[in-house]
Amino acid sequence: MKKLVCLLTVLLVGCTAVEETKTERPVTFNMAIVNTNNINGKVENGVGYSRLSTIIKNKEQRYGNGNVFYFDAGGNFSGSNFADKTRGESVVKVLNAMNLEATTLGKGDFVYGADRIKELEKISNFRIVASNVKYRNGENFVRPYILRNINGQKVAIIGIVSPALYDEMDEKTKTEIKIEEPILVIPKLLDQIKRNNIDFVIALTSMDDSNPNQEWNITEMVRDIPGIDIVISSGENRGNTLERINDTYIVRENKDFESIGITRIDMFADDSQAGRMSYEKIKASDLTTLKVEKVEKMETEDVFYKVEKGNTLYSLAKQYGTTVDEIKRLNPTIEGNNIKVGETYKMLEKKQVEVKEEKVEELKVDKEEFDSIAVEMNDQQSIPQETIEVGKVNVPVDPAIEKLINTLK
Fold first, then answer.
1. Which of 86, 151, 194, 277 could bridge 90 with an S-S bond, Cβ 3.0-4.6 Å?
2. What number of H helices and E strands is found in the chain?
3. DSSP character string of 154-173
4. Through-space distance between the first and last CA atoms of the chain, rounded to whole angstroms
């Protein structure tokens, strides 16, 4: 019996001894999201699209053209003379020029009716996504989500519309479409797209935290529905940092272009890994300068040294910022740790190194003249020069719109 107890003790101790400790890989940002919400057609207000396009250009230089994405949480097509006199047409043209990837339907977007949204969708180079807006017969009103391949990762971008916006619809629109409860729609959608081996989920939503109905508040929805990596919300941002609920992050900006957000993401980090996302809030009031990080690749030369009396491998390694083993690797003739006075040895070999320089540059943007470098328009050939025909509505070209578009080329 005594031998049996000893054997069990050894086995138990052995089991605990072989338990492995997982080491987290360091965070490396390989994607950047630029986000806005509730601009309300105020294209010249606050940050403005001219400054925004300059910021996007800078991020593309840092992370690469294919790794920077502009997303919006809705509230674009009405709310200013610029937007209202063309019933959202002018805003669509500007967003096309900005290479917007996707938006959802937000506050003020339903004021022209469902038919007008579909007309605007037809001339948009970006996607309008809304998973819980349906026709009365159950068909999707617009695309519920889109899929993208980013850095080899499958990414889903879903749209979630606040049911509170139902009150903005006119009676005709209410008979045509409905906004379903997110708590009923989103879990099923996430289950569906996850079955397609999606690695990362981005949600664009017009939900905020101002509604008396808790189920219509974004914080409560995220708490109840896991599986979304980052939510771009239309609510006002309550600070300058990311909000995190479980493994989901929430970003939201101030309305009327008073701020924009930039979120850097490590696409390959575990969901629970701390620091896998880093957020920067840029306020319009702070936009006189822009912090720019430039990375240049430089090639170093081979470095040699002629040994003097008193030198040792250790002292030379310390002097040149290398190691004894590295010096010995570069000089196979060295035996042991012995070096000869008067002999020349290679201390460092030629290689490419990245030199990072961070500096502050003035944002040279004339708000009235819209002087700015910006992204090119994707496709304007389909829009006639003299008039823009959308469905049955002919909208005359506005010189002010064309002036803005031309500065975004």
1. 86
2. 11, 20
3. EEEEEEE--GGGGGGS-HHH
4. 86
User: How does strand 352-362 pair with strand 289-299?
Assistant: antiparallel
Helices (H), 239-381: 313-319, 324-330
Question: What stretch of H or E contains 252?
Answer: strand 248-252
Task: Give the tens place of pLDDT for each residue, 329-372.
Answer: 999 999 998 999 999 999 998 877 666 555 545 454 433 333 33
Cα 140 to Cα 143, 177, 193, distances in angstroms: 7, 9, 16
**And the tokens for 394?**
């002919």
Residue 290 pLDDT > 90: no
- Signed CA dihedral, 138, 74, 111, 402: sign only: negative
Q: How far apart are CA 194 and CA 200, in angstroms?
A: 9
The overall longest dimension of the chain from CA atoms, in Å, is: 99
Per DSSP, the three-state class of 68 is strand
How many CA atoms are closer than 13 Å to the CA of 70, on its beta-carbon side? 21
**Residues 6+ away with beta carbon under 8 Å from 142:** 105, 117, 118, 121, 128, 129, 130, 133, 159
- CA angle 280/264/195 to nearest 5° reads 130
CA torsion sign for 311, 315, 316, 317 is positive
* Cα–Cα dist 409/405, whole Å: 7
Residue 93 or 354, more confident: 93
Answer whether 377's CB lies under 8 Å from 96's CB. Answer: yes
Helix (H, G, I), strand (E, B) or coil at 144: coil
Distances (CA, A) of 54 to 22, 71, 364, 372: 41, 16, 10, 7
Name the CA dihedral angle for 298, 304, 310, 316, rounded to a multiple of 10 degrees. Answer: 30
Decide: 406 and 95 in contact? Cβ < 8 Å.
Answer: no
Per the listing, tokens 């409560």 go with 220
Of the candidates 381, 371, 383, the one whose C-alpha atom is nearest the C-alpha of residue 409 is 371
Provide the 3-class DSSP secondary structure of residue 361: strand
Q: What's the DSSP call for residue 16? A: H
- Residue 117: how many CA atoms within 13 Å on its side-chain side? 26
Give 3-state DSSP helix, strand, coil % of the chain, rounded to 5. 30, 30, 45
Would you say residue 45 has pLDDT above 80?
Answer: yes
Kindly state the helix (H) or strand (E) to which residue 178 belongs, with its residue range: strand 177-179
Amino acid at 173: T
